[in-house]
Amino acid sequence: MAFAHPKGSMLNYMRAGCSLMPVEYLPLHTLPVLYFALLEGSMLQFLKMNLIMQSVLFLLVVCIPAHLTQKMIYVDIGWPVGLCVAAVNLFCFGDGWWVRRDIMSLLLLLHGGRMAVGGIFMFGRASKWTFLFEKDLPRYQYAKWRWLNTWGMPESGWMLKMHHDLLQQGCANIFGLPAAFLLTCFNKDEYFGIIEVFGILVWCIAYVIESAADLQKLKFISVCKRQGKGMRNAVLGYSPFDGSAYWLWTRCRHPNYFGEWCCWGSYAIIGAQCFVSNETLPSALKVLLGIVSVYNLRMLYDCLVYWTGSEPAEFFSVQKRPDFSKYQETTRVFFPFEVPFVDHHKKAFWPVEAMTQ
Question: Which of 44, 65, 329, 333 is the residue whose CA sits 20 to 30 A from 126?
């Protein structure tokens, strides 16, 4: 369940994500200061160049178009392109063992590039390559609805909050998400440790899961289009679309999000090798980057389940597709297996049902 601020609280303007408590997200505002205090040499050069390039990218591709159109959809292009920018900067400035640096830069480039290319072509075709849209994506329509109705905030403050949320993703590309890569691309040890090998294997599996889930979804959409109007209420992962061709969607309701999350988990695993080697990196910097690498998983879980992922998607799906509530009762929302102490939201009409209580 998402952490609930008091309705109308001014903290909502600074709120990161959706389910995070103030004690979790308020310290994030100190991260730039800590980075500039602790980073030096080629790491600091990477930080400065990444800061400049990500700022220009988000200003031109995300913030200005979003301000002019009052739509947040542009961040779905800017954020993954920003991952590609970070990958190039890591390749250029990383002074660690070149084999490790090149592999890690390539992993991030493949990760961001798949989403960037997919987003550009999908949104380009949908807008006839004008990139002007009649409506925002449902998840961003939901973000505004939640701001007004769940959080009890004024509509006059939405534009400010919209830019805050957009810039959060830009800041993630600058300060948060590169943390594990700072531990690896600047590691001068000329060998791969067992932890790194395991982490790379996890990345390969996660990348396949995310890509396969997206392909299964595209197949589902194609079948529904061919069969016509009678399939408007069809649910991916629920009968009759629960066979072997769609098996990932029978394990959880958002296997593509799970694969995305596991990719970031793999980066944290690979970065953990630095704690049993790489004696040249200061201990304080190791600890900071290690904490941020692990915290990224908490932040991304919140994002993929509550903030812009599962909750917004299911808010609309459960109201449009009668069988979706049955799918919710039988299938976990995020993890494809049982995890103790985790709410898998196997409840009919979630999150609509939770908001009416």
Answer: 333
Give the pLDDT score at 104.
98
Taking the CB of residue 229, how many other CB atoms lie within 10 A of it?
7
How many beta carbons lie within 10 A of that of residue 341, not counting itself? 4
The residues, ordered by sequence, that sit 6+ positions from 261 with a Cβ below 8 Å of its Cβ are 206, 297, 300, 301, 304, 334
pLDDT of residue 278: 75
| CA separation for the pair 233, 221 (Å, rounded) | 12
Q: How many residues does the chain have?
A: 357
CA quadruple 150, 153, 158, 164: dihedral positive or negative?
Answer: negative
Asked whether 322 and 328 are in contact (CB, 8 A), the reply is: no
Range 91-127 burial, b when 16+ CB lie within 10 A, else e: bebbebbeebbebbbebbbebbbbbbeebbeebeeee
pLDDT value at residue 96: 95
Q: How far apart are CA 43 and CA 50, in angstroms?
A: 10
Q: Tokens standing for 314?
A: 């299911």
* DSSP-assigned beta bridge partners for residue 332: 252
For residues 172 and 78, the answer to whether their CB atoms sit within 8 Å is no
Cα gap 196→140, rounded to integer Å: 37
One-letter amino acid for residue 345 of the chain: H
- Beta bridge partners of residue 252, listed in sequence order: 332
Query: How much is the pTM?
Result: 0.94
Nearest to 265 by CA among 304, 231, 238, 234: 304
- Tokens (6 digits) for 33: 């200061």
Mean pLDDT of the chain: 94
Task: Determine if residue 5 is left, alpha or beta; phi over 0 gives left, psi from -120 to 50 gives alpha, anything else beta.
Answer: beta
Separation of CA 80 from chain center: 9
